[in-house]
Amino acid sequence: MMKHDSWWRDAVIYQIYPRSFRDANGDGEGDLAGVIEGLPYLASLGIDAIWLSPIYRSPNNDGFYDVADPRDIDPLFGTLADAELLIKEAHAAGLKVIFDIIPNHFSSDHIWFQEAMRAAPGSAARARFHFYDGRGESGELTPNNWNSLFTGPAWTRLPDGQWYLHLFDSSQPDLNWDNPEVHADFEKTLRFWLDLGIDGFRIDVSHGLVKEDILVDHRDPDLLTKALRIDTTDVTAEQRADLLSDMPFFDRDGVHEIYREWRKIFNEYKDRMTVGEAFVYPTSRLANYVRPDELHQIFNFDFLLIEWDAAKIREAASRVISELATVGAPPTWALNNHDSPRLVSRLGSLAKARALALLTAALPGSLYIYQGEELGLPDGDMPVSARKDPIAIRSKGADLGRDGCRVPLPWSAHQPHFGFSSHTPWLPQMSSYGDYAIESEVSDPESSLNFYKKTLEIRKHHPALGGEGQITFLESEPGVLAFTRVPGLVVVANTTDGSIQMKLEAQSILHQSGHGVNYVADLLDLPAHTTVWLQR
Ligand code: GLC
Q1: Which residue has its alpha carbon closest to ligand 1 atom 6?
Q2: 4 confidence band (pLDDT: 50, 70, 90)
Q3: Hey, what CATH topology would domain 469-535 get?
Q4: What is the reported pTM?
């Protein structure tokens, strides 16, 4: 049964962090040949698509989100021919392929920035970025008081005295989207990869391209920086709402013009999609990005941060669903990604993580899974000296950054480096990672992996799941979340520390996140921190 008219509307999309997925050439770093080797595993999960974090030429100061040539593959990952082969083989295995695109900034190694550094102030080469004279008597002060999201000022000065803007690392100069040359270059990049056969793009910092009032100071840049950390506890909800609803460098209305242009390009191709990364406030503004003539999907950050709390989950889910319904866009759900702590570590419990995953998989729309999530993998830990994230480096370890969720995957409990590579991996794996090895989990019926597989298998075939059909929340006692999807599914999650009973009309248990669920004579008995799917 076709539940939708476009594959992406309820697709299950698996995020690959290529550097940490699988290393085929034995240099301690994952590569495209490793992804190709992993295709049978990926296909066995029951997913629809893979999204690869960036693999373009880069000096790698920010996990390849600092792109020096967006139309070539970094030698660390392989060659353009490897990328073509991956696309072909993934398609043959029934998987769509999504690449990342990074339009907010280039690497300072990009030829444009190299030209800009050699060119004079006021030149066409500098007009592709945001170059300004400084303030103060001899221009020694930054043009404004904005901070980099990676700590420190958002400006770096060249020897000739001019400053350039970088919202992230100093090696990631922001592009000037008022310049038509920037538009033309990105059109070229989009078409380059679309012509090569990819099925879509994840758009990095999609809310960041347009800047306003560059020469005006922000009223409280330090507090704004804190508010922008997604896992922050340094600001109150009111402060955050106030600061994030008006940011001179994020979520300006002009950004939508760019996506209208891009959508026209996408519409020339068949069945392609885009998903934007946008951290905006209020979340109702996310809907602006997925109007029918803009992007196809947008991430919401709510579920990356959500607590294991029935009321909070219900509030976030119903808000996201209804906000996106205003423009007819499908919601997306992600519990992990390469920028956030892994769910198991964040919630501190595998039972809670599984229960939240099962609940989330029953929501309408599209589901994102981050590599290792299906194994129940916890975050890695390592000394500051072993960390590679510019956040850890720029803050000198005051902020440990995002390496914990980027540690290479364990494939086998018995091989060196857990079968990820024959060489020491670029980030150290935890000794406990053997317990989560793919090889072991495949053969353990109780493993997270087999739990995820069964979840996706049911989701694919059940007429109420995936799709964008109606969801109705049921009244339930505090700490319990219950909803129905039509036709024929009831979902109940118990977020409390004790078991609960609930009177409910259904036929039988379809799937559960743990053990010990009972359903007899209309009475559901649900253990603590467990979710159940019931057939109605
Ligand atoms: C996005 C990426 C993150 C990167 C940043 C700058 O938020 O997900 O990994 O550091 O953009 O490109």
Answers
A1: 65
A2: low
A3: Immunoglobulin-like (2.60.40)
A4: 0.97
